[in-house]
Records
---
Amino acid sequence: MTFAVEVVVALKPVVNDPQGLVVRDGLHRLGFSGVRAVRVGKHLELEIEGDDETSVRALVEAMCEQLLRNTVIEDSRIGSIRVLSDTPL
Amino acid sequence: MTFAVEVVVALKPVVNDPQGLVVRDGLHRLGFSGVRAVRVGKHLELEIEGDDETSVRALVEAMCEQLLRNTVIEDSRIGSIRVLSDTPL
Amino acid sequence: MTSVQLAGASDQDLAEVALTRAEYVHLVESLGREPNRLELGIVGALWSEHCSYKTSKPLLGTLPTKGPRVLQGPGENAGAVDIGDGLACVFKIESHNHPSAIEPYQGAATGVGGILRDIFTMGARPLALLDSLRFGPLDELHQRHLFDGVVAGIGGYGNCIGVPTVGGELYFDESYRTNCLVNAMCVGIVEQGRLTRATASGPGNLVLLVGADTGRDGIHGASFASVVLDAGSAARRPAVQVGNPFLEKCLMEACLELAGDPRVIAMQDLGAAGLCGSTAELAHRGGCGIEVDVSRASRRETGMTPYEVMLSESQERMLIVAKPSDVPSLQEVFERWDLHSDVVAVILAEERFVVRDGADHVCDLPLDVLVDGAPLRGAPGSRPHRAAPLDATNRRRRSWTSEEALLRLLGSPNLGSRAPVYRRYDQQVGDATVILPGGDAALVRVEGTSRGLGLATDGNSRYAALDARQGAMIAVCEAARNVVATGAKPAAVTNCLNFANPEHAVVWWDLHDAIEGIGDACRALDIPVVSGNVSLYNDTGGTGIDPTVVIGMVGVIDDVKGRCTAGFRDVGDSVALIGPVDSELGGSEYQRIADGVNAGPPPHLDIDLERRVHGFILEAIAAGLLHSAHDCAEGGIAIAIAESCLLGDIGARVTIDELEQGEGLINGEAGILFGESQSRFVISFAREALVRLHELAARHSVPFRGLGSVGGERFSVTGCIDVSLADVRRVHEGALIERE
Amino acid sequence: MRFGIAVFPGTWSDRDCRHAVELAGHETVMLWHKDRDLQDADCVILPGGFAYGDYLRAGAVARFAPLMESVTEFANAGGLVWGICNGFQILCEAHLLPGALTRNGSLQYRCAPTWLRVETVDTAFTSGCAAGDVLEIPVSHGEGRYVADEATLEMLERDQRVAFRYVRRDGSGVVEESPNGSMRDIAGIVNEARNVLGMMPHPERACEPLLGSSDGMRLFDSVAKSISGSGAMPVGAAW
Ligand SMILES: Nc1ncnc2c1ncn2[C@@H]1O[C@H](COP(=O)(O)OP(=O)(O)O)[C@@H](O)[C@H]1O
Ligand SMILES: [Mg+2]
């Protein structure tokens, strides 16, 4: 089966996020004064072959540790996992 | 009240995504051969003052159109909206 | 003092702040009391090797730092020399090895950010950056990861802030497998009248903290860089700093606007040990004291302790000392650049270092104890006996033809084209880069004058591994040679000393010898040392790096139009070798790839001949006699000629028969073609110039030997090499490219 | 003749552009992003750099600077606006030019000489060139891959709004040697009224033989000629 898996990779809370600061200030300049803080991270959408959700989740967790996140400054979490098709693409 | 709002910004499907290809090939090299495709987008986490979810959602939608996405090549969608605190930070 | 006193610090306490028991005892004696926790942490940071130079200071004192051009020697954020037209050239090199080993991109990026601040803190507009990088073997996945990350990080910061990276150097060697080296050099220009110092004065004057908010970045960074990386390094990872080149660009423009402004009494960047290190240095240089109120510093995070605020190494921050009456108008300048600033400290009359958290006094230390009080460290043991250098002859593992050897060398990571690196760097912003990377030194013109600066970094550690003193001397000479090849006369140097754990006698004595070597070479060539940096404890898991002396050289050419480049130019030009002929292979790249060893004495160096050769080349270029000049470095004559062909995109036909007539050429053809004898240049010139060049060579008494001529699309050495330039180029350009 | 040069926080080609314009013998005035006054500039240059760090997207935040309001009015009134590198990115973000500039195909920053074939001389910026001329002008960017939908690309081609294309030194197609993977090797385009040019390469870096090329000067000269020719003051006069 083919699964669509969402992964969010974000800077650890203690880590400085220059992008977030600029976006926040940009939004303030546009008049969105209620914006307190912005953090900018990555959103990955993966299409993977697998047998079931559990095994796919395990696979993606391994991918996060090995490649998708920079373990030094980033955390990652798996979002939705959806079945795309029952037959390989 | 303060809300935490997730926004996902991703390249439109028609726009090709070299970063996604590199990540996919990287995963293949690591032996994750079941990976069919990868798309890399942005994940923003905003902290916003607002009265209720509806008004906050409307605000963030406006932010997406004006700044957070490039309407020519990117789509955006609002993810979870959580209440952080009932009093301003 | 409301803060807790320590009833004697535990070993655990001391380990946390990287102080030895002996240092702690010395501290208590000098204070006449126990420090409290905050004081202990502050002392730990400022007494770290990184900030206190407790090991290297006694040795650095022997370096020649004076000269007619010197406006500012070691002791300030950077050195400065007079380059004429009332201008000063401000420059320094600095290491960011440990952070880059933990996170290559951010480590390298913040290294660039740090050295840039050292330059514009002095009021100088950064004109150019150079780097000096060392990694383990490139065919290993992790090394490739470090290499890519570091190169991306240097470009990421320099490109964004708009300062060109015009040169540098790069080596791969087993010795760096667990300790990569990332050194960055910055060169700036300022009108001498606007040269700004980091020397506080005037009790009652206020200190502005400008730029980034303070967060929990790099807490312990200073002591971190002063201890050996170990398994626990991973645990200290939250210390990793993320740079913000955009913020630094704004900070730089604002500071440059204020350079030489009478309202600015002193400017000091925040580097090692953050607010703590910078405020202490600032006051100590001025012979006054300082009182910091941590509650006034804007935070990026909530709940930070005074300790965290004082030691935070958040990037892109600057201190400005000014009269209270001038503060508001200065803050306006920063606001124009959307920069936030807080008054965080006041200058005191007595030399005390006081920290308050609002009304609460949390630290009160004598400044001299804090800044100068660290017990200096001498030799950890007597000079270890070094086995006489291995004889490098007759250990040939491979028997390649000279042609095979040429192509293998050109295609090796240490000799291959650097284009895959420097094309990721903006080399041109500023409209000043007259000679781009790829040849010898870069040449950058000085706006508003006809002058140019020749810039190079060099430091072959294979030689230093065999003989630290000789290696250091050669590093100075090679850097000078690269600058001379452009027609610029060496003016001054900066240096970065990268060594392993100096608590081992071998390492300490190598450091000692290397500094001697730098001093001797600089005295002989009459080039003062005006700045530098020391990085010790590059010693993960007991495997230390080879002694790595990186020399940053700045030379001056009065008219850039008279410059010379390294590529052959015209068909029919003659090619000649300036300098000695030998066949020594000790420490050579040929030996590395052919024999798989680093053995024998390093190349012989006749420093007086070196000096004469520089004289000859500079005069020949000034007289317009040369069409190209390229120094012979790694890979020897053969590689030098091949490079001149590639750079000029034209072939050459040479013969070495004349060279082979020499005495005792033990390594024969290979030694002559690929040996790395010093003090040599390959030059090309129009036939008509031959006579005058002969006279000139005789006058400077430097050896001059005809080699052949320029032309065609092949590189050939009679009887041993005949390859098409296209093949040479393909191999050379592929050397750093990842093979799938 | 007066060139206005925009300065955003993070702009770094401003000084190079001033240098080039002054070399060409014209007046320059720096235009601060917080101001609205274009100070009677005959041509406004949006120079290269990383305005606001180019965080989020190159040019995304700069587009909202007060100065850009005046620049937009000026452009709509027919004033000459020249976006170079970051300036091109800003013009696309501001919808003064179609399409977008995305991360280089190589995912790497690229600073290198490139060769541009002049595709149209029917603009104030290229009128001094001949169609097919090949100019040597360096690039220096990480996000220069021009993308647009088919319809837009077709329109650009049909209306001859592609100003420059990356080619080999000899004028032939670059194919895999493209510095950034732009669609149809597009290096620069103009708006429908042909008074707004966006280009990724840096002509201001190619105005002196000493720096390797002076082909960029031909563009500055073209602008100067067409302005003095049309005595374009009226447009500026509106301000
Ligand atoms: N190897 C060296 N040779 C000469 N001067 C040095 C050397 N190492 C450090 N210095 C000088 O000591 C001072 C402190 O160095 P450093 O701590 O690296 O400066 P910073 O605090 O700006 O990072 C500087 O003036 C520097 O030039
Ligand atoms: Mg400093």
Note: The CA atoms of residues 110 and 179 of chain D lie 7 Å apart.
---
Amino acid sequence: MSLVLTEEQELLRDTARDFVQENFPVKAFRELRDARDPDGFDRKRWAELCELGWAGIPFDEAYGGAGLGYAELGVVLEELGRTLAATPLLATVALGGGAVALAGNETQKKEILSEVCAGKRLLALAFQETLHFSPGVVETTAVADAGAFRLTGTKRFVLDGHIAHTLIVSAKSEKGVGLFLVDAGAEGLTIERTNNVDSRNAATVTLAGAPAQALGDPARGGQVLEVVLDQGAIALSAEMLGGIQESFDRTLIYLKERDQFGAKIGSFQALKHRAADWFCEVELARSIVLQALRAVDTGGDDVAKLASAAKARSSDVYLHSGEEGVQLFGGIGMTDEEDIGLYLKRARVAELTLGDGGYHRDRYATLEGY
Amino acid sequence: MSLVLTEEQELLRDTARDFVQENFPVKAFRELRDARDPDGFDRKRWAELCELGWAGIPFDEAYGGAGLGYAELGVVLEELGRTLAATPLLATVALGGGAVALAGNETQKKEILSEVCAGKRLLALAFQETLHFSPGVVETTAVADAGAFRLTGTKRFVLDGHIAHTLIVSAKSEKGVGLFLVDAGAEGLTIERTNNVDSRNAATVTLAGAPAQALGDPARGGQVLEVVLDQGAIALSAEMLGGIQESFDRTLIYLKERDQFGAKIGSFQALKHRAADWFCEVELARSIVLQALRAVDTGGDDVAKLASAAKARSSDVYLHSGEEGVQLFGGIGMTDEEDIGLYLKRARVAELTLGDGGYHRDRYATLEGY
Amino acid sequence: MADLETFRADTRAWLEANCPEEMRKPMKAAGDVQWGGRNREFSSDEQRIWLERMSEKGWTVPTWPEDCGGAALSNAEAKVLKQEMRALNCRTPLMSFGIMMLGPVVLEYGTEAQKREFLPPIARGEIRWCQGYSEPGAGSDLASLQCRAARDGDEYVVNGQKFWTSEAHLSDWIFCLVRSNPKASKHDGISFLLIDMDDPGVEATPIELISGASMFCQTFFDDVRVPVSNRIGDEDAGWTIAKKLLQHEREMLSDPAGGGSPTGARKRGTLADDARKSLGAAEGPLPDADLRDRIARVELDQLCYNATLRRSADGAKAGRGVGPETSMFKLYLSELNKRKSDLRVRVRGVNGLGWSGDSFARDDLAATREWLNSKAESIAGGTSEIQRNIIAKRVLGLPD
Amino acid sequence: MADLETFRADTRAWLEANCPEEMRKPMKAAGDVQWGGRNREFSSDEQRIWLERMSEKGWTVPTWPEDCGGAALSNAEAKVLKQEMRALNCRTPLMSFGIMMLGPVVLEYGTEAQKREFLPPIARGEIRWCQGYSEPGAGSDLASLQCRAARDGDEYVVNGQKFWTSEAHLSDWIFCLVRSNPKASKHDGISFLLIDMDDPGVEATPIELISGASMFCQTFFDDVRVPVSNRIGDEDAGWTIAKKLLQHEREMLSDPAGGGSPTGARKRGTLADDARKSLGAAEGPLPDADLRDRIARVELDQLCYNATLRRSADGAKAGRGVGPETSMFKLYLSELNKRKSDLRVRVRGVNGLGWSGDSFARDDLAATREWLNSKAESIAGGTSEIQRNIIAKRVLGLPD
């Protein structure tokens, strides 16, 4: 698969860019934030986004999806990342939808994915229990109860947890680690939204004997989870790539506009060299993210390694981009009024979401056997 | 203890600088190297150095020493480091002499240290068995034999091993890890000099039942060794500081002299900023080395931490200095004729000697309990 | 020396007798720091009494002359006072830009009349000052400032705006760099003016920072009339004063014990403790090797930095100047503090991502905000880039 | 396409029939690479035969015109030839600066007479060329070169010296940038001359490098007389050619499959394997966390770099140019290769510190030497600093 966009993908990118710039500009994100919107996203605009079919990009046409792949999902996520758009796309499509597509039985897929594609159902993947990303730790229990299960435990940092209609929860039953469907209104379920520094949605989810259905085979959840988290990390990296590119582009413009000492600050060689090194990092991040997205679609056995490579890279480069951006904007960059700081905040949260650079370098080494 | 030199120490530094520049210029080091000198150091000049009393700086006046401390030894080592002087000072005084002073009984101290101070005996500490610095590993055995011991095992990277009159060897006896004196001419002892990239002296030492005397209490060698290696690391850091300062100073001069594009290359802002950051690193290295040297003299309980701090710093900064130096000298820096490359080579070997940055950061964390 | 020991004993006795018990306990809230000013409020009676007693004694500004509100102490005596206050854990009775920044300038460049007019109210905490240097278009290149002071008889008419005027909305007066001569070269047309913020035409609007804090303002001047007698130093000679102030500010910012670095000053659990807690790890090496190495690096850097500070202090004692190496301290410390603040967030895992709300502990939220605030360290008081320029030129002597 | 498949079949048949068995085995020693030249030696009969057969066929320079020693293959055909040679593991019969660097220049800028004079001997490996660009005073600022070519009728009289003339002591001819007009501005007075190194007044002295190798020379010219007919391109118009050559060199150096990067090309045990061996570690995570992280970083960087190369190639296929991004590849790869070479030493522990002698394994010694050689990667072919300048200006459009 080529690492440049096909004509169809370019068309999708152009459409996406227009739509996102129009409907999800940074200004819209600021409005949501400043209004302390209880949803944390814009339902009307999300509906419009779903009308474009984006929520169904990677899903089978049988479920109302577009039958496309991560290459296309990545195109859209990158554009959304450019404007810091707060949408449930990552949580509902890549994480939740991904889990259903991989683990669900036919009935579950039909029911849930159709509603996801139609923009009628939001999902959240509740898997993390520790403060540091460590997906192997599953203490939440699932006890069989009359053909169904009851779940008890606490999940942290559940992306879009408080707006999801359905939670997909990892838990340990007698058969091992499984994934379970929990209805947002279920008894014994408490969902507390957390206000994070990037003003996106996450929640702490507490389950006290909450009723649940197994998603597919309750013995296969551990394996599925690993694949879903890899795909999720790749999708998130695509979104981060948008933020990386945008913060770089904006800083570059500023370097060309800002006068100090009678010259554009972009004419100072020390800043030029930093910009040149930064440019290399942006380009390398783009390459590995594109390769990882395509690997999901071709289903090669290198997806795990590429997921770690892409997430490690985008984590480090995004944080660097936020930091360099604020520093080079100088005092202006420290003000809330200037957008560049928003990218720094998003970079921080995105870095820790689904594993930071340190985690993924460690994992890469493990996958490589050293 | 003040972190600046006292008047006496300044006087010592001035004397040392004059003596070293006169007797151990880089040119002299090159001559030794190019002549493939079998000793690897200049016996005549070493004798002159000993006449100045340098080999006895940290030892008690009772043994003919100067009764000074590591602060003074550091002053001298820094000057020697500036010109890459190849002398047995580190191996004989800091490592070997340090071990004797700490572990030896009165008779041993009197006999050995008097000869060290007089420049009549060279020592080497043979402790390392692994390729990576890991002083806890001692597989060499010491078997009691008629009031003495017989040693069997292999020691690597023994500094000045092939010129030492007496080897101080770590080995495991029934009583634990001890230090043992082995005569250079002992039966069962093979010493093979290795030609290292910095053209200094090191050797592989093989012991096949070589006769040995215990240095002090054969049960306390492990503890003594740790202290000696810390003192050695601090002394080596002082020598490295000289190399760091010299490579920085030489590069700074070059930046002010070299014309390209109609200007001194030192006027290019990107290089200025790198020089400024490098300067900070040099200053920080100097501070921690001075503090560590003084800590040995005051005998505080922070010597181990400061040893790791100083060695980690000087390892990283020296390598950086060699690399920046070669890069900023450009093509000229790649030629053997230009001295700057010699500092890069010494930086590499000094880095791995007695533990590199990674080792000492790990150890510092361990000492701090995390 | 005997005199100094007498002074020490007297000082201790006075402090023991006069410093209220309450004022010897660690501060608990931001309001426990007294900044003075027309609208000053005291968090307690003890705080008020303590300030009154200290200022009456001239010890809020101990080295200033007596007719300026000080006690005319020698530097040695002032040091003893500081030591004794520390020994008894006495709180600083008054903090202010007036004491730290403006006072030294007025003492050096002001007329006798100016000293007697402006300094005593500072010493008594009656007037709170803020600084007006930067402008939106004049950051690193401060000398390009445009805020205009046109001479009109015995007055200047000031028009323009200042950026980063710290706590301007809480201050009474502002000391400003203004352009008094637009025709002169950029360094030669600047004057140093003192302006009452109650004057018509002055308006301060807080700036919201990325951390959510708003301790800085944008301050606007619209035909503000300022008497010529409020100018410190000669007309058009303000740049000399500005340079002095900047150097002074750099020194403050590079001293972790000073007010400049909240990151360095605040005491909390160590990074390793926080990491161990959030990792749920038992004793022994932290299980996250990356985090462990980051902590060790930052701690070793801090150790080396502290050693360098100590070496510099020892050097000063031994009679060797400090000079432009200050830029080195400012540069290194601000970059180090940024890394430390980053790490303070990182060791908390997702608990370090909070912005507000009860789901996060206060410490966690403070760490996040502080991380964002720390980004200003390498910008305010001369960016790291400016410090590198200064080091290259003034310390290393590299050519232009 | 059908034609191309016929060509492929024919090519394979010819290669199978004509490439000696010995020439299909991996090279063992440096001498197995044939560089040609008047004094060329063959390490085996097979090597000689293979070169003769290939050059007779025009396949040492397959795309060159037939009267220049080539086979006038299309690019598509040349690619097929390459693929088929690789499929059969055929060795490259001839490597040379004549083929890689000079040939393209003569083909683009040379006269018909020059092409027929200089190119066929290159194609047959009879003349070995070296390059003469840099001078001791002209490194990064190549255009400041001083080597003088004074016109004297139909000849130039050349005086001066060149630095970094690769393998000049083994070469027959040198292609040089010389200053033909000292009065013109620095870029406008340079010409491109071909000089026979057997001419009186030419002397090449090997330069010893920090790695101990001496593949470069300092070459001196003392009143060397060069016919004007040996000038490629117009008088004083040599800088155009130089820029082309430099761009070409950067591309070569940024392609890990090319001849530019021995570090990237040579195949050995992986870093992790070497580390495991030298640490004496069993399976599982390497016990040295620092080393393990360094290896992962370098491997991930390489992965990302390779992806970028692939993306660029895919972009070229899709009809998007490469352009000055070449500087990005050159910059990133040389810095990466330096780190990789450093690590290759580091994983060996003290075995990585050897310079010579039997106490070290050959691989260990090679790693040390290569580490030192790798320092040239960010200097030769335009330093990393120059590449950053180019990226800032040409790619990012930052102002002067």
Note: The first strand of chain C starts at residue 129 and ends at 132.
